Every structure is written in C-alpha cells, then in structure tokens.
C-alpha cells in the first residue's frame, strides 16, 4: 500500500501552496481508493487520510484560530497572498484620491466619514428641498452654518405654524382654500411671497371686502342657475367684464333663435340668394302684369265696343253715329264742327275711344248736355278749379274722383286794370288776384275719408322738398334720400345780387343775372331742362325779352331749346301764378323784389304773396324742380321784417330765403339717427371696424335708408346704401311697395347698383361670410367714379378756376372752346376763328363772368372788403364756425358782420347794421375759398 504525504513532517512551511495541495490530496485519495483491492486496503487508506488531515489541521492552527474552518483559513491565506498587489492598486487609485482629497490614505483611509457623508447627501436630495436650501445643505460650509440652519428651521416651523393658524382663522368665516388665496400651490416657489402680498392687500383694502362677498354670492347664484361657464370664462379672463352682458344676450337670444329655426322649418330653409332671385322675378312679373292688365283692359273695351250704326242719309247734317264717322273718315274736308259731331255721333265716338281727356271749358264747349255720359270723371289739379266750372263735367258722370293739392294754388280771377303805375306789385301791374273756393275744397268738406298721396319722388335731392314738407305738409310726405350732397347741379342754391333795385315792378340787374345764368346753363348743362319763374308779370316779361335778345345773338342755344321743346319740356319763363303743373330739371327763381332806387330798404309788400293764400303760391313755386333750384334774389332774409301780424306768405318767403342761404331748417332734426335694431347695430360696427364712415338711418322724412356709407373720395356723397330686412323693410304696405317700387325710386335718384341688402337669417347663420361679401361689394364700388354732374362745390370751383385762368392768359386771336365731353373746361382753337367759334367765345365770356360772380361767401372763406367811399382801406377776415379771434382775423359766423357778409359775392355792397351805431356799407373785393383757388 502506498502512503500519501501531504505535509512535511518537520512542521515547517507547506511543501506546496494550499490550493495545489488540496487538489493533489483529493486526487491521491481517489486513486488510492480505486487501486485498493479489498476492504482492508480501503480501511488503511482511510486511516492514512485521517492522519494526514489531522496533521494538516494541526499545521493550519498555527496560521489561524481553531474556530475558523479550513476553507476560511484557505480563503484568508489566498487573500493575504493578493494583499500586496491590492494595496499597491489602492495607492494608485486617482479617482478615489480626487474624490476624497487629502483624506484619502490608500489602504489606511478612514471610510466611515465618507460613508456617513454619502448617506447624508442622499437623504438631502431625497427630501426634494428648494434649490437654495439644497445648495446650502450640500456646501462645504454646512457645518459652520449648522446653527444658522437650525435657527432658520425653527423660524420656518414657526412660519408654517402661523400659516396653519391663519388658515384655521380664515376657515372660521367659511370655506377657505389656501392655494386659491395665495394664487400659488403650497409647493410653489412663490407661495409665501404671494400669500403675504395677498394678505397685505386684503388688509389695506378692507373696503372691498363687501363687494367681494357680494360678488361671491352673485357667482354662487349664477352657478346655481346653470351659468357657471360664464363665471369661469370671466374669472379666467377669457372675456372682459363689460362684454358679459352682451355675451349672455348673444347666447340667450342665440338659443332662442336656434329654437325658432328648429321649430319653423321655413326659416331654416331661407336663403338670401334665393329670396333675392324671387324678388327680381317678382319685379319683372309685376311690371309685365301691369302691362298686360292695360292690354287686357283695352282688349276688353274693344270687345265690348258696339258703336251704333246710326242714321243713314244723303244729307251730312242728318247722318249720325257710325254713318257720320265713316263719312268724315272718307271725306276729311267735310264741314262738321266737333261739337255737332260729338252731339250726333258721341255714342259711337265713346265706344271707339272710351277715355276723353278734356278741360272744363272743353267739356262745356264740345259736349252737349246728355249727349255723352261717363262712368267715371277724374279731375286733376282740382285746387285750381272753381265749383261752377267743374259742375258741368261732374254732371256727365256717375262716379267722381277729385285729385289735387289743397296746399297749392287756389282758383284765381284776373281783372285787367288800365292806367295804373303803382310799383308795389299788388295794386299795380296788369292784374289783381282774387282767390276763391275750389272744387277740391268743396269735396274735402263733404266726402270722407280723404286719401293722401304721400310719396314724393320728383325731387332728386331732399333739399328741394324739405322746406315745403316742413312748413306746409307737416313732414307727412315720404321723401327718399339722395346719394349726393348739394352741388351746383343738385339741390337748392342761394345767389344774392347786390346793388340791384326794384323799380316799376321790375328788377333789371336781377333779370340780367338770371339771363346770364340761363345762357350758362344751356351751354354747359344741355342734359337738364330749364324753367324760369318770376314773382310778377312785368319781371317775367323783362326776363323773357332779355333772354330772347341774348339767344338771337347766340344760335348755339337753339339746339338746347329745340331739343327740350321736342321732348315736351321746353324752356319757359313764367310768373308765379301760371307755373302750377310744370316740372323741369332746373328752376331759376327771380324773387324780383328788392330795395327801391336810392334806398337800401325793401318795401314790405310782395303782391299776391302777402295775401291770405300767398303761401300756397310759394309752395307751388318751391316744388317745381327735379334736380336743382337757383334762387336769384336782391333781398336778404333780414330785409323782410316779420311780426305776429305778418301774412303767412311773407313769413314763408323770408324763411325760404334763410333756408336757401344756410341750408338748415331750424326746427327740423338733421338727417340720420341711430340704428333701429341690434341687427343693424352689429352691421354698422362691422363696417366701422373696416374703416368706413357709416350714417345710420339716412333720410329726413318718412323713409330712411338703414345705413349709408360715406364716399371716401367725395365727402359730400355716399358710396352705397346698406339695407336690412328691418323696420323700414317691413313697413311696406304691400309687396309691390316693399320689393319693387321703393328700390326703383331709390335707383332713379342715383342709388342704382349701389344698394346692398343683408337678410337677417343669413347674417345670423354666417356673419363672416356675409361680411366678406359686403366688403367686396364696397371695394368694387370704390373703383367706379361718381358722375361728374354731382361733384362737390370745391371740385366745381377748381374747374371754374381753370376756365378763368385759361381765359385770362389766351392770346387775342385765341378762343376758348367748351368741349362737350367736359363741360366747363377749356381748350384752345386755332386761328382764324370761325363764326361758330365766335359764338362759343361769347358764351364763354358769359360763363367767365358767371363763374367769377358765382362764388358766394360761405363759412371758411377768406374775405377782403373795403369801406364804401374809402377803397384804399381794405380789411381781410375769415369767417369761422367757432369763436371769433380778432387778433388772427377770425370772425364767428354768428356775429353781425359775418351774417352781413355771408351770401355776398365779389363787387357786392353789403350794409352792416348794429343797434345804436350808424350803418356801414362795405364792398366785397376778393373771396378766397380753401381748395378752390378762385378769387
């Protein structure tokens, strides 16, 4: 049996390393056991191993305590074997040295403080304290600041305790939210600052506590009523407080509107475009129906016409009815008077032509009693018809329609007077007027009700009817507004003529000015018909004579007169009594009366105007024009003295002159007003936000346009009309009035293609889209120029300035020619001048004089004037609407001097009368208007 030796027997150092020895021992035992041939050998081997292990244990006890196991000792031995190398590695560890600095001593380093510091840092970071505190707690000076930190901790704890006490105190008064009070979460960095600031603010604003409490109560009630969203929106500053009421109203009424739309399906199906198409189709069909209705009536009358054959005879005087008519047709030279023919063939004539148009005298002259009977008798201009003159026509009918204006001329009788030379226009002249009752007055007293036609659409500018509507009709007429402001060719103009005198019932200076203006009109405005009216017969005759003389020397005016004669609107010169029923584009009025020779006082007798019904004559005169009225007068309004005994006609004449001069009726509200509905108001706000100047409710009487847009380039004109389906639209009595006639009247006044209609349903459902369409329409209109006939005064004066400047600088052989394409502008004609150019030159001379004199003093003008008899003493002032400033030469329009100068022209003499001071006469020498350039 082989022996196994693990250790040397001398007890010295092991012969082999421990690890290797152990491995070898295990391997040797295994081999020995395998090699043993019997049990005895194996027992021997075990005993040998036991002895070896005992020796090994004995040997190991020299190196380690007995309590350690062999494996532990072996591990310790292995570690001890690697210890030198590990110690060297620790000494060379740079990262550890950089981390611990001088405290790093390699294997001898005291790691306990480092571990404690690491644990401390982890705990500080885990606490998630504010950054400044965390930095202090992790700084190198933490130990030195330890006491300070402890003190601060105590103070913080006391502060939180105070916060807790504050919270508890506040909760005694009701529900209290600390975060809400501070407006910051408790964990926020600015919580303390916000809490302190809020508390200080509350203490210093205790007077606001009650309103705040009331606000909270109000919001609580609001939330209880289901309106909490409004409170949230308001408190989140999503809406301004002043918008709250409107926002609520919008949602409130919006919900109602939605409910209505849901309930009434016809509203939800409404579309503005479809409705506009329906309106256009209706207008077309309505006009066609009227035309067809006329044709139907004519056809029906023709089909019912059964003229009797009449009596056949060889003698013409014995023929009757159709026999007589056929004979007259085949023998046009047959001698049968109209009266006899209507007597013998009246039934057949009426069957063939059932409508007769005749005057009262013609009825009496041509229709024998009982010869012809009518179903209806219609009397027009009945205010001028005497009952005794009308009775014959009335007796020939079974029904009567009387049409007239009780505010216009009554029946008047004229009696010739011979050998009279009075100048007052009342007792003298060729006639005296005696007013009497008309058939209209009789019928109005016996028949009820009286129907009134209220729509007035003759005048293309409201200033032409404003005075009569206010003074005579009680503002009951419905007047449609014009899109243009007052200008030379539109509206009422006042043209004062200084230095004129009224003598022998004539005013020669005034008549000459009227004739000059008439020639000017015929040359420069051939598209406007003209009528001239004077206030007495002699002035009419004078104007007519002067005009004929002037026109004979100017054949160019023949074209104007012939054209309008052919159209039935020829130029006329009439006196006041004979103008009723006439209508022209432009009316010139010569007021005729003026100061007597060698006097500046106007006699207070104005002929028939001063009679009881004189105001009715004036009403006729004031309402004859379609486009413009030019008042030529030698009187200022203040020249007519009125008191409580002054006749109404005289007062009306003075008031009309005041209105013509100032353009203002003192007791009439100005045009425009406020929007009539929230719908119109919202549209107005949208337009104003887009930069447009909006005039709500444009108009002065009866009818108003919902919104009118001022033209940016022409301040006196309007760009467009915006109509809504509001009060004005729904006030139409019939569909015809509402959807056709009103719009056609507006278009005839100049609003054509300038009216935009918005339907409330479309606006409610899609306001942005409707706004976009409306603004695009307005932008399109901006590119369209206005008619040059209606530009404002300043631009007209620029044209006149160019005309005069060209006239003054021309050479002797050059002639100014007015071009048809641009009335009032001048071009040069090559010499030698023809006969026609000489005629045009004469017209131009008239135009030049008229333009120089036409500039009448208005507010804003710079005026130079001299004292009569002292032409070297010139004075210059500017009339302003505000206060006077003598140092700067500004004179208020309310001063006596300004009132005296207003309306005067260059070379006019004006008289300044101030109580307790002598009268002063001034002569106007120059007028400068800003932007006009003409003086």
Reconstruct the topology from this structure.
Blueprint: H1 18-35, H2 39-60, H3 70-91, H4 94-100, H5 111-126, H6 131-137, H7 146-171, H8 178-182, H9 191-204, H10 209-224, H11 228-235, H12 244-263, H13 265-268, H14 272-304, H15 321-330, H16 338-352, H17 360-366, E1 374-379, H18 387-395, E2 397-402, E3 412-416, E4 431-435, H19 439-446, E5 455-456, H20 463-471, E6 478-479, E7 491-496, H21 508-524, E8 530-534, H22 537-552, H23 557-566, E9 572-575, E10 584-590, H24 614-622, E11 625-633, H25 648-662, H26 678-689, E12 694-698, E13 705-710, E14 718-724, H27 727-730, H28 735-751, E15 755-758, H29 760-765, H30 767-782, H31 793-809, E16 815-818, E17 826-829, H32 835-854, E18 862-867, E19 870-880, E20 890-892, H33 896-901, E21 909-912, E22 920-928
Parallel strand pairs: 1-2, 5-6, 7-11, 8-9, 8-10, 10-11, 14-15, 19-20
Antiparallel strand pairs: 3-4, 12-13, 13-14, 16-17, 18-19, 18-22, 21-22
């Amino acid at each position: 049996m082989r022996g196994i030796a693990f250790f040397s027997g001398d007890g010295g150092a092991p012969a082999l390393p421990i690890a290797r020895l152990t491995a070898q021992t295990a391997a040797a035992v295994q081999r020995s056991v395998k090699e043993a041939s019997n049990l005895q050998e194996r027992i021997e081997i075990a005993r040998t191993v036991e002895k070896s292990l005992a020796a090994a244990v004995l040997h190991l006890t020299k190196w380690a305590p007995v309590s350690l196991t062999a494996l532990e000792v072996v591990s310790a031995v292995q570690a001890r074997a690697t210890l030198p190398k590990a110690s060297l590695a620790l000494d060379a560890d740079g990262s550890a040295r950089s981390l611990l600095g001088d405290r790093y001593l390699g294997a001898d380093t005291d790691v306990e403080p480092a571990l404690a510091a690491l644990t401390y840092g982890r705990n500080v970071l885990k606490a998630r304290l504010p950054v400044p505190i965390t930095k202090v707690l992790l700084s190198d000076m933490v130990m030195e600041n330890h006491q300070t930190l402890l003190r601060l901790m105590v103070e913080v704890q006391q502060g939180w305790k105070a916060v807790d006490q504050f919270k508890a105190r506040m909760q005694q008064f009701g529900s209290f939210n600390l975060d809400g009070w501070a407006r910051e979460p408790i964990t926020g960095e600015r919580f303390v600052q916000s809490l302190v600031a809020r508390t200080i603010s509350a203490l210093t604003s205790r007077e606001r506590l009650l309103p705040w409490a009331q606000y909270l109560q109000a919001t609580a009630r609001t939330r209880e009523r289901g309106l909490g969203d409004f409170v949230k929106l308001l408190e989140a500053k999503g809406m301004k407080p002043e918008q709250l009421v409107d926002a609520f109203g919008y949602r409130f009424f919006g919900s109602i509107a939605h409910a209505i739309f849901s309930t009434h399906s016809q509203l939800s199906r409404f579309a503005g475009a479809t409705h506009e198409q329906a309106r256009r189709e209706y207008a077309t069909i309505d006009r066609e129906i009227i035309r067809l209705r006329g044709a139907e009536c004519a056809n029906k009358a023709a089909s019912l016409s059964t003229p009797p054959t009449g009596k056949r005879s060889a003698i013409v005087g014995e023929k009757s009815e159709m026999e007589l008519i056929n004979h007259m047709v085949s023998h046009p030279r047959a001698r049968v008077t109209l009266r006899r023919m209507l007597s013998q063939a009246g039934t057949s004539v009426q069957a063939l032509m059932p409508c007769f148009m005749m005057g009262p005298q013609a009825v009496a002259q041509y229709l024998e009693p009982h010869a012809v009977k009518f179903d209806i008798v219609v009397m027009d201009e009945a205010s001028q018809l005497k009952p005794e003159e009308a009775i014959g026509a009335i007796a020939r009918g079974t029904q009567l329609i009387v049409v007239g204006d009780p505010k216009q001329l009554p029946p008047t009788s004229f009696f010739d007077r011979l050998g009279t030379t009075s100048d007052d226009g009342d007792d003298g002249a060729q006639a005296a007027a005696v007013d009497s009752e008309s058939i209209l007055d009789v019928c109005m007293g016996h028949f009820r009700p009286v129907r009134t036609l209220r729509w007035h659409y003759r005048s293309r500018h409201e200033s032409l009817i404003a005075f009569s509507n206010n003074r005579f009709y009680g503002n009951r007429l419905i007047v449609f507004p014009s899109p243009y402001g007052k200008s030379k060719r539109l509206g009422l103009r006042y043209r004062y003529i200084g230095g004129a005198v009224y003598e022998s019932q004539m005013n020669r200076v005034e008549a000459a000015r009227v004739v000059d203006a008439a020639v000017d009109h015929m040359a420069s405005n051939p598209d406007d018909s003209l009528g001239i009216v004077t206030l007495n017969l002699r002035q009419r005759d004078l104007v007519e004579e002067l005009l004929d003389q002037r026109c004979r020397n100017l054949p160019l005016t023949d074209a104007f007169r012939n054209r309008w004669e052919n159209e039935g609107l020829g130029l006329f010169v009439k006196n006041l009594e004979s103008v009723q029923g006439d209508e022209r584009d432009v009316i010139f009025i010569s007021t005729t009366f003026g100061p007597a020779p060698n006097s500046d006082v106007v006699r207070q007798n104005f002929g028939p105007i001063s009679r009881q019904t004189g105001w009715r004559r004036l009403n006729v005169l004031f309402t004859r024009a379609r486009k413009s009225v030019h008042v030529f007068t030698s009187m200022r309004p203040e020249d007519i003295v009125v008191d409580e005994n002054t006749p109404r006609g005289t007062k009306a004449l003075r008031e009309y002159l005041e209105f013509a001069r100032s353009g203002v009726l003192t007791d009439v509200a100005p045009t425009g007003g406020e929007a009539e509905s929230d719908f119109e108001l919202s549209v107005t706000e949208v337009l104003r936000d887009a930069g447009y100047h909006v005039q709500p409710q444009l108009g002065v009487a009866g009818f108003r346009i919902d919104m009118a847009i001022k033209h940016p380039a022409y301040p006196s004109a309007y760009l467009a009309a915006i109509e809504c389906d509001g009060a004005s639209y729904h006030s139409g009595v019939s569909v015809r009035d509402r959807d056709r006639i009103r719009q056609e009247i507006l278009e005839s006044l100049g609003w054509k293609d300038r009216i935009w209609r918005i339907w409330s349903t479309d606006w409610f459902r899609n306001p942005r889209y409707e706004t976009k369409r409306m603004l695009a329409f307005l932008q399109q209109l901006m590119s369209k120029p206005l008619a040059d006939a209606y530009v404002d005064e300043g631009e007209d004066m620029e044209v006149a300035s160019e005309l005069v400047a060209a006239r003054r600088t021309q050479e002797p052989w050059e002639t100014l020619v007015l071009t048809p394409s641009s009335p009032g502008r001048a071009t040069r004609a090559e010499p030698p001048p023809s006969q026609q150019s000489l005629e045009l030159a004469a017209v131009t001379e008239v135009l030049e004089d008229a333009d120089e004199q036409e500039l009448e003093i208005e507010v804003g003008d710079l005026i130079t004037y001299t004292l009569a008899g002292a032409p070297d003493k010139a004075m210059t002032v500017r009339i302003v609407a505000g206060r006077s400033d003598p140092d700067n030469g500004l004179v208020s329009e309310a001063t006596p001097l300004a009132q005296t100068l207003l309306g005067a022209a260059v070379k006019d003499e004006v008289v300044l009368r101030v109580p307790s001071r002598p009268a002063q006469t001034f002569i106007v020498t120059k007028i400068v208007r800003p932007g006009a350039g003409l003086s």
